[in-house]
Amino acid sequence: MSHLEIALLAIALSIDACIVSFSYGLVFSRERVKNSMLLASYTGLFQAVMPAAGYYLTGIIKSFIEPFAPIIVFGIFTYLGIKFIIEAFEPEKKKNLCLDFKCLILVGIATSIDAFSAGISLSLFGNRILKPALLIGIVTFINSTLGFYLGGKFKHLPAKSLEIMSGVLLIILGIKSLL
C-alpha cells in the first residue's frame, strides 16, 4: 500500500473513535480537556496496537495465505466498508457514557477491532507495520480529540455521512487490491 492509501486507511479507521468521542463531547461539560485527552489517548493507543497485533498474527500463517492475499485483502476491506455503511443506517442506540479505566479500555477495544483486520491486510500487502500503526494511532488521537470538541459545539454533526464515506473508502481500497 502506498503512503496515501495508508493515510486514507488511517482516516477511515479513525471515524468510529471520532463518532464515539463526539457522543462523549455532547454529554461531558466539566473537565473537557482532561476527558478529551483520556478518550483520545485510549482510542489512539488501541488503534495503533491492534493493527500491529493483526500484522504479527498474520505472520504466523502468512506462507499459507499469501497466494490468496489480494482476494483476502479485498474481502476484509469490502466487509469493513459494507459494515461501516450498514451501521450508518442503524438506529442510534442510547449510550451509557463513562470515563473510568474499564470504560476507556472497552471503548479502545470497541473502536479498534476493525484496525486488527487492517493489520492483517497490511501484512498481506507486504508493508512494514511501525509507520502505519503509528499513523493510524496519531490520526485516531487527533480525530478523537476533534470529535470530542465538535460534540460540545454542534448537536447535529453528520455522523452518518462520515460513516458512509469511510465505508466507501474502504471498499475502494479493497477493489484496488485486486488490480
Task: Sum up the structure in keywords.
179 residues; mainly alpha; Growth Hormone, Chain: A; 82% helix; globular
What does this structure look like?
- This protein is mainly α and 179 residues long.
- It has helices spanning 3-27, 32-65, 69-89, 101-110, 113-125, 130-153, 159-178.
- Helix 1 (3-27) packs antiparallel against helix 7.
Task: Count up the helices.
Answer: 7
Shape from CA axes?
globular
Strand content: under 5%
Number of strands: 0
What characterizes the major β-sheet?
none
Fraction in helix: over 70%
Average pLDDT confidence is 83
**CATH architecture assignment:** Up-down Bundle
In the predicted model, the low-confidence regions spanning at least 5 consecutive residues are none
How do the strands and helices of this protein lay out in sequence?
Layout lengths: L2 H25 L4 H34 L3 H21 L11 H10 L2 H13 L4 H24 L5 H20 L1
Describe the structure concisely.
Helix content is 82%, strand content 0%. With 179 residues, it is mostly helical. It has one domain: Up-down Bundle (Growth Hormone, Chain: A).
